[in-house]
Design brief:
This protein is mainly β. It has one domain (28-118): Jelly Rolls, CATH 2.60.120. Helix content is 4%, strand content 39%. The chain has a five-stranded antiparallel β-sheet, with no helix packed on it. Strand 4 (59-64) and strand 5 (70-73) form a beta hairpin. The chain starts with 27 loop residues before the first strand and ends with a helix.
């Protein structure tokens, strides 16, 4: 190997999650940048395909059904397994925008990325 002025690349493990059996076979990866206004909630939702991503700006209050709530900060990764309810994925700041980049592990181009649950926003905000 030739001498180089650069050090060896270093890899830091950030995420390792098993895909649930409910995940469809992955034949396509779709990516999206999602921008949140200050304080913006998502409402209760599910993904019919497993979703993985990273917080690229700001911080989020995040909770998957059955797990403890946690705060995700810039650079943190997240996993939303297919078929599991997401109770909270909301901009934690009431004064600054926030942003995530998501990758949807889809079966086809027509695979929906997200399904909002009936009255999900009202239920999350305690209005129902």
């Amino acid at each position: 190997m030739a001498d180089t002025p650069f050090p060896a690349l270093k890899r830091e493990a950030l995420l390792e999650e098993e895909l649930p059996l409910t995940s469809p076979a992955v034949h396509l990866v779709k990516g999206a940048r999602i921008k949140f206004a200050p304080g913006q909630p998502t409402g209760l939702h599910r993904h019919p395909v497993s979703t993985v991503g990273v917080v690229t700006n700001g911080s989020f209050n995040f909770q998957r059904e059955g797990d403890a709530a946690r705060v995700l900060k810039t650079g943190d990764t997240f996993f939303e397994p297919a078929g599991h309810t997401i109770l909270q994925f909301d901009n934690a700041s009431t004064s600054a925008p926030a942003e995530i980049v998501c990758f949807y592990l889809a079966g086809t181009k027509d695979s929906p990325a997200i399904v909002m649950l009936e009255d999900g926003m009202d239920r999350q905000l305690g209005k129902r």
